[in-house]
Structure formats: C-alpha cells, structure tokens
Amino acid sequence: MASSIVIKSYKNGLSVHMDPEADIETIKADLAAKFRESASFFKDATVAISFEDREIDSQTECDLVNVITSSSDVKVACVAGHNKLTQAMLLNALGELEYKSEKQKDSNVQIIKGTVKDGHIVDVPGSVLILGDVYPGTNVIAGGDVFVLGGLFGNVCAGNNGDPDRMIAALEMNPEKMRIAGIKYRPAEKVKWTIKSKNAPAPKLARLIGTDVVLETIDSNFWKRFSFKDDKTIQD
Predict the structure, then answer these.
(1) Which of 39, 53, 68, 205 has the most CB atoms around its CB within 10 Å?
(2) Looking at domain 5-79, which CATH architecture does it have?
(3) Using a CB cutoff of 8 Å and minimum separation of 24, what contacts does 154-157 make?
C-alpha cells in the first residue's frame, strides 16, 4: 500500500508532501513510520519543516510536528511558511553562501527559512539568520548575533555565552523580551504588541552600549557610526 506522504530534503530543512485525499490520521501514522525508519539517517538534526500539498490548520500542524519529534531525534526549529514567492526570492538572494560566526570559527551561522511560531525554541551556539517572522511566545537564543528578515515579536537573546559585542537586528522590532549577554533591554515606554503596524516599520538594531541595551533605527548613514575590528573593503 502506497504511503500517504513523501519526504524531501533541502538545505537546513525537510518538506513533507501529503496526499490531499488521505485521512489526516493515516498521514500521521505514515509520518511516524517514515521517521522511525529513517531515524539513523536524520539522527538528531535540527531542521525547518514545511507541510505541502494540502491546507492544514495550526493545531494539525502542531500535531504533525509532535509526531515527528516523538518518532525520531529530529529537532524542529520552525515550520516554514507557504509564501513561495517570498521564499524563492530569499533563497535566490542567499544562493549557496555560508556565513561564519565572527567569534566562533567552528560554528556556521544557522539559517532558518520560515516563520518561528507555536512556542518553538531556536537555540544555536553561533549566530542565526531567520528568513521570516518570530511570533510571540517563541524564543530565539544565540551565542552569537540574531538577524531577522521579518518581524521580531517573541523573546530573543544574543550573546548567550556572555559576549557583549553581539547584536540583534530585525526589519521590524517589537520583542516581548530582549537580552544581550544577559543584560535586559528596558524600553523607555511599553509598546503594545501588534504584527500589523499602522506605520511602515523601520529596520532596527539592538546592541550594548556600556551596561544598557540600546535600540537604534537603521538608515542609510547608520553603519558609518561604527568602527569594526578587521574592517575590510570589498572590491572587484
């Protein structure tokens, strides 16, 4: 009897293609069997997961993630969104580049493709680049820097190993809680959380200045205020 699912792998992630005519309980059973059979192949990999070929609600999505994690040692960092055009543009821009952590030479910057939601925890030893939003109730913890090509609305910690030179940057910045090297960001005024801001969001960056986490707007002159170690000019 043919399986109701097909699993395809790609860089940093897996896509689960589901038979649109199959019963969801059959899909869960086949998913569990497939991950049990492939446990030695996937090992304890941390991946992004996408569910394809049929519409599912958030509860079913959560159930499927639980099936995967209970049937194997795989850690699901996030569930990738379904905006194919946006993902294709981002992947095309990234190409096959690999980012290296400035402070941790043995740690690649982990790239997470898709929105982090449903209480998921992203915990990496180096830096992390998230291609999507970080929803409330989720946690992003990094020994290095945190970069979000989307809205940052959850809890975030950079420099978790105590490095005070780390930073947090996002296209839209409104986190529930934010820390750098253990120091908590204390906003001058509390901003009500919303994903859909009335005003156009401005990219922002948080960094430590002295003993305070300072939030700054990124504009065309922003980086001119910095003097980085090992500055290099890239030329043709």
Answers:
(1) 68
(2) 2-Layer Sandwich (3.30)
(3) 154/116
Enumerate residues 6+ apart whose C-beta is below 8 A from 154.
Answer: 116, 134, 135, 136, 137, 138, 139, 140, 175, 176
Site of tokens 């946690």: 139
Query: Position of tokens 């970069």?
Result: 147
User: What span, in angstroms and rounded, lies between the C-alpha atoms of 71 and 33?
Assistant: 8
Encoding tokens for residue 115?
């929105």
| CB contact at 8 A, 141 and 121 | yes
pLDDT tens-digit profile, the chain (236 residues): 678 999 987 666 788 999 999 999 999 999 999 999 988 888 888 777 888 888 888 788 888 988 998 999 888 766 665 544 434 433 443 343 333 334 444 446 888 888 898 889 999 988 999 998 999 999 999 999 999 998 999 999 999 888 898 999 999 999 999 999 999 998 876 655 555 555 567 889 999 998 899 998 887 666 665 555 445 444 44
Question: Where do the H-state alpha helices sit in the chain?
Answer: 24-37, 39-42, 58-71, 84-94
* CB contact at 8 A, 18 and 51: yes
DSSP alpha helix (H) spans, 162-232: none
> How many residues does the structure list for the chain?
236
- CATH number belonging to domain 85-225: 2.160.20.70
Q: Give the span between the Cα atoms of 55 and 27, in whole angstroms.
A: 13
* Among the listed residues 47, 40, 35, the one whose alpha carbon sits nearest the alpha carbon of residue 9: 47
Amino acid identity, position 68: I
Domain ranges of the chain: 5-79, 85-225
